[in-house]
Amino acid sequence: MIELTREDDCYILTMDDGENRWNTTFVREFARALDEVEASTGPVALVTRSASEKFFSNGLDLEWVRSQGDHRGGDRSAFGAEFMTLMGRIITLPVPTVAAINGHAFGAGFMSALCHDVRVMREDRGYLCANEMQLGMTIPKPELALFRHKLPADAFFETVQLARRWTGPEAKTAGVVQLTAGIDTLEAVAVARARELSPLGANREVFGGQKEALFGENAVLNQPHGAAYLLRNSQRYR
């Protein structure tokens, strides 16, 4: 389901469960892999990839949600809180993270990709889409906050309100992803970028601490005052 390997200064986390749909079992396996990454020391970065040729992650495991009784997807009642907590963990992971998006990333799959520091997307196939509107669902406020923090304003509205499907080239132009590549070079490009960034992971306290300042409690982006006020009163915000 989740495989974690290490190549020198780069961890490779491979999602290997078909369409990589999110359920509680999948969340917990992913979290266990992050435990190993966080337990490491020294310069390191993480690349998240998919074993599927078509899907990075196709979102919530709807078959599991609609089923009854025991299921390999695990405890349904625990999913919401554990999934959101995991997304918060990825976005503040104290090492650089790169998502190698080889195919479709819908809903929860799109969220997980956005939680990474850098996104590399396949240039010829696959879509990124927050498809809640198409499914007749409202997007939870924590998810809206994630999209707002990670996307430029126009791309944010088109994503969450108009359920736009972003191709690789469109996503790069809009600032949704930073790099695109062909399928044959996608992973290599992602790993190369991760290795460039891996020295930043040597000081986990600083790298993770600044992510908390950006995305955590009382995040600087959410301050009620503007930049000028903060600059003039910088001693209050040390």
Structural class designation: alpha/beta
- What's the story with the biggest beta sheet? 6 strands, mixed
The succession of helices and strands, N to C, reads: EEHEEHHEEHEEHHHEHHH
Per DSSP E runs of 2 or more residues, the count of β-strands stands at: 9
What is the CATH class of the largest domain?
Answer: Alpha Beta
Shape: globular
Give the fraction of residues assigned to helices. 40-55%
CATH architecture of the largest domain: Alpha-Beta Complex
Mean pLDDT: 95
Strand-residue proportion:
15-25%
Number of domain modules: 2
Keywords:
238 residues, alpha/beta, six-stranded mixed beta sheet, 2-enoyl-CoA Hydratase, Chain A, domain 1, three-stranded parallel beta sheet, 10 helices, globular, 9 strands
Ordered list of secondary-structure elements with their pairings:
Elements: E1 2-7, E2 10-15, H1 24-39, E3 45-50, E4 55-57, H2 62-66, H3 79-91, E5 97-101, E6 104-106, H4 108-114, E7 118-122, E8 128-129, H5 141-150, H6 153-160, H7 168-174, E9 179-181, H8 186-197, H9 204-215, H10 227-232
Please explain how this structure is put together.
The structure is a single chain. Helix 1 (24-39) packs parallel to helix 3 and helix 5 packs antiparallel against helix 6 (153-160). The chain has 2 domains: 2-198, 2-enoyl-CoA Hydratase, Chain A, domain 1; 203-237, no CATH class. It has 238 residues and is of the alpha/beta class. The protein is 40% helix and 16% strand. It has 10 helices and 9 strands. The termini are far apart. Strand 1 (2-7) and strand 2 (10-15) form a beta hairpin. 37% of the residues are buried.
